[in-house]
Amino acid sequence: MGLKASSDTALYGYVPTEWVCIVFVVVFSLTTIVHLAQAMRYRLTWLALTIVPGGLLEILGWSGRLWNAINPRPLDGYLMQICCLILAPALIMASNYLILGLIINKLGIQYSRIAPKWYTVIFCSGDIISLIVQAIGGASAAIAVQDTSLPRKDPEKGAKIMVGGIIFQMFVMVLFTALGAEFLFRWATNRPFVRTISSEGSSDQVDESPGSALKQSPEKTASSEEAEVERWRLLLIGLAGSTLLIFIRSIYRTIELLDGWSGPIISNQQLFNCLDGMMIALALILVNFLHPGLLLRTRTNAVSLGMRKKKSSV
């Protein structure tokens, strides 16, 4: 038999509410199933390898909390939710890094400070590093909690390591947001970067002439162009919204863990439900509705804003 807590409230500072845990297990199960179906439908393997595993970890984490809602004392459920819920958002965020790279490839790499491939290399590498650090912290805390020998190990060390991983993840997210915002500004105002081409006539960017990725098909009508622009806007809203929700959750978890395993923040179930569970659930659902596959499946070569047409006619 696994280790058990000395009292019903010893693990969390409260007993998790059963119906809340059931709701989150159901919600995360449904949105993850939809994400898997969408990844298969639109043949987006990278989503099946990022956002879907993130959803599965959320299901496992909330199943651990449900386990403790039914039986508050088993330590296994508590450790399961610690490890799974701390790691899941990093995997979900990895999909956002890949989505922005695809957007840049479509709208024009000349408006990006770095090549799209570097979004994958830099930000996914940062995500992996944060995952490893958080996993080490979670494992350290789990070992300390399970240790029954004397002197007892301090789980606070593991918490601090996890905080380090979360803070690093937040730094990566801020850098990602800054580069993404700069790209969108340059794209919207048609201000491409001027780059130096190598002697062979090539660079790490495929084509950097202004508007090269935004060539207008002659058969496009104004209405079809407006519809396409609207799809891009929705995709960008989904990307920005899910990133913001995950960032809010990261701020909360940083403050929570810095406050300690027995602090008032980590012992507040309502805060956890709203600022962790709800934030991640909304992020996943938002991408369900504003899914990149809805746009990427269309075989269009470009998107052109009305402002570009006005500029070209001047």
UniProtKB/TrEMBL annotation:
It is found in: Membrane. InterPro entries: RTA1 (IPR007568). The chain crosses the membrane at residues 12-37, 44-63, 78-100, 121-145, 165-185, 234-252, 277-296. PANTHER family: PROTEIN RTA1-RELATED, SPHINGOID LONG-CHAIN BASE TRANSPORTER RSB1. This is RTA-like protein. Keywords: Membrane, Transmembrane, Transmembrane helix. The keyword Mitochondrion does not apply. It is a multi-pass membrane protein. It comes from the Eukaryota. It comes from Phaffia rhodozyma. One of its GO terms (cellular component) is plasma membrane. Its main location: membrane. Residues 200-224 are annotated as: Disordered.
